[in-house]
Amino acid sequence: MSEYQIINPATGEHIAAVAATTLPEADAAIARAHGAFGTWRHVSPGDRARLLRRFATLVDSHVEELAQLEVANAGHTIGNARWEAGNVRDVLHYYAGAPERLFGRQIPVPGGLDVTFAEPLGVVGVIVPWNFPMPVAAWGFAPALAAGNTVVLKPAEWTPLTALRLAELALEAGLPEGVFTVLPGDGPVIGQRFVTHPLVRKICFTGSTRVGKQIMAGCADQVKRVTLELGGKNANIIFADSDLAKAAATAPYAVFDNAGQDCCARSRILVQASVYDEFMAHFETAVRGVKVLDPTDPASEVGPLVSAAHHERVSSYVAQSKVAFQGSVPDGPGFWFPPTVLETAGPSDVAWREEVFGPVVSVLPFADEAEAVALANDTEYGLAGSIWTRDVGRALRVARAVDAGNLSVNSHSSVRYWTPFGGAKQSGFGRELGPDALAAFTDVKNVFISTEES
Ligand code: NAD
């Protein structure tokens, strides 16, 4: 495609056209990023930190503009979009603290001095999905830049606007040309070019498991480093001894937030059989109360789906299932989809097994702890999950037994920028955020200096 037509998902209106990067343009940008690496890696830690802080400060003074842009481009509610722009600022501030604290080690050895260095890798290719265009981009570019790498970033085809604005702010903050470049383009063309280009030393990919597998296979050819943040089919496990009213009141938001377009969406609810009916009564009231409104309205809790094509995909899952009950959507144009609870016959149901990526949830009862863990683990994914119980021993047992990267007890929160985030099984590998992310953007180099007399 030579140009992307950007549509406001809430209104169906055309809001912008964005030129798609061509292959020669991508190659030139990668060459510039490689050239810039030669200087950026040697910028003193203090100066690199100051530049990243200035970038963070500029993002802070543009939170409202970035949020409004995301509402128009991705249909996110204004409340969520403000949080997302604020998250970019916070992640930049957090990693601005890194350049001055990235130490090597000195390991005692006989006959000399042995030291290690945390070396930056070079040009890092960051590939971003459309569901959280701002935070996911920052989780890649901020630690990569802090560690001394340069970055080429490809936003998703449907949602390039905020990434392009962030690149302008980076330049305004004083990051040298070529250090951070945003290249809108087709995944199989520009994304693949990052994978095959020998000067791109690492791929930081967030997206579907299907594409993640292709990226991993492509990286094998050059033994290119890769981190993969992929899909999820996360369990929300509710035990009979939990605060049932709270678990039921929050469960809709754990899956319908961002219209369910969230890798951490708790789209499989598991309820202990003894409280199933009680839970479902509270849950239905809560689902019917979710405010699906114009995303510019500060009261809006859920906006539209991102595109007509994605609306069709979510609809096809619901068409294969039986609906138990649904919330409501506004009248008029836009890619609206009501919060939907499905009747689930069993764990072989297609909507129970596959990532629907819309405001759709399935519920199943379980008898005891062992069955809850077995059902939670009966998926190829392993990203996130919640456990509701008042028994702290059970909470820890289940958290250790569920094979996923991020679990929350009596909470649905998965992301705090100072703690690690990432998946197990086919949800990917490598960790973003927190101190662990820095290791993913550096290599350990060992140097031995002989102290023997010549
Ligand atoms: P996607 O895999 O279709 O696309 C993701 C990105 O990869 C886009 O920029 C796309 O253009 C690019 N791409 C597509 N084909 C490519 C190829 N052959 N080579 C290189 N790049 C290519 O995913 P999506 O539909 O944009 O996003 C939704 C998916 O992302 C869901 O599965 C969701 O769970 C996942 N996700 C995961 C996380 C996480 O942290 N684990 C976070 C957000 C989204």
TrEMBL record:
Pfam families: Aldedh. PROSITE patterns: ALDEHYDE_DEHYDR_CYS, ALDEHYDE_DEHYDR_GLU. It comes from the Bacteria. GO terms for molecular function: oxidoreductase activity, acting on the aldehyde or oxo group of donors, NAD or NADP as acceptor. Residues 3-447 form the Aldehyde dehydrogenase domain. Keywords: Oxidoreductase. The active site is at residue 229. SUPFAM superfamilies: ALDH-like (SSF53720). The keyword Nucleotide-binding does not apply. Signal peptide: none annotated. Belongs to the aldehyde dehydrogenase family. This is Acyl-CoA reductase-like NAD-dependent aldehyde dehydrogenase. It comes from Longispora fulva.
